[in-house]
């Protein structure tokens, strides 16, 4: 056991440096989740900070429940979960990652990331009354008649 401990400390030293006081679980080089936007490498640092989400500490390995991969930056695994009680649909809860908007300027771009990273859930209401009680913004799309060709 002492040999395993010594090997583990040596491995961490090579990865995180000699000063154990700065070793942190979930730091950029060790056990975290950072969602990297596909355009991240093509933009400047300021835009990259806006597009990327995280990092957040994510422990475990590929055998840990709800873990998002076995590497130091966990890039695979469950990003959406839902628990539904079919006798009471409004009691459903869910987790999603990183948010509900694809617009980095939106407050909902990354607002679910921390809940997901901490294995916590949000209510996933089903009934119209429950949904309308929590609406922050509504977008109503109405179809129009297609234009006739040549007009």
Attribute tags:
single chain; alpha+beta; 3-stranded antiparallel sheet; two-stranded antiparallel sheet; 5 strands; extended
Description of the structure:
- It contains four helices and five strands; from the N terminus they run αβαβββαβα.
- With 151 residues, the protein is an alpha+beta fold.
- The chain has one domain.
- The chain has a three-stranded antiparallel sheet with strand order 3-4-5, with no helix packed on it.
- The longest helix has 15 residues, at 2-16.
- The mean pLDDT is 89.
Given the structure, what is the number of helices? 4
* Strand order, largest beta sheet: 3-4-5
Oligomer: single chain
What best-fitting shape do the alpha-carbon axes yield?
A: extended
Unreliable runs:
none
Overall mean confidence score, pLDDT: 89
| Overall SS class | alpha+beta
Q: How many domains would you count in the coordinates?
A: 1
Quick gist of this model?
This protein has 151 residues and is an alpha+beta fold. It is built from four helices and five strands, in the order αβαβββαβα.
Could you outline the blueprint of secondary structure elements for this entry?
Layout (H helix, E strand, L loop, with lengths): L1 H15 L15 E4 L9 H7 L1 E5 L23 E3 L9 E3 L17 H5 L4 E2 L4 H6 L18
Antiparallel strand pairs: 1-2, 3-4, 4-5
């Amino acid at each position: 056991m002492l040999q395993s401990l010594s090997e583990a400390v040596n491995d961490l030293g090579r990865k995180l440096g000699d000063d154990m006081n700065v070793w942190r679980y979930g730091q950029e080089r060790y056990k975290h989740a950072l969602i990297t936007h596909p355009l991240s490498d093509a933009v400047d640092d300021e835009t990259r900070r806006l597009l990327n989400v995280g990092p957040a500490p994510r422990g475990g390995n590929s055998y840990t429940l709800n873990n998002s991969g076995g590497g130091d930056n966990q890039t695979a695994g469950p990003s959406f979960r839902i628990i539904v009680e079919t006798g009471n649909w409004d009691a459903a809860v869910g987790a999603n990652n990183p948010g509900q908007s694809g617009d980095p300027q939106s407050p909902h771009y990354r607002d679910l990331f921390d809940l997901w990273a901490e294995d916590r859930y949000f209510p996933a209401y089903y009934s119209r009354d429950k949904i309308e009680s929590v609406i922050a913004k509504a977008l109503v799309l109405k179809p129009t008649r297609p234009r006739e060709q040549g007009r």
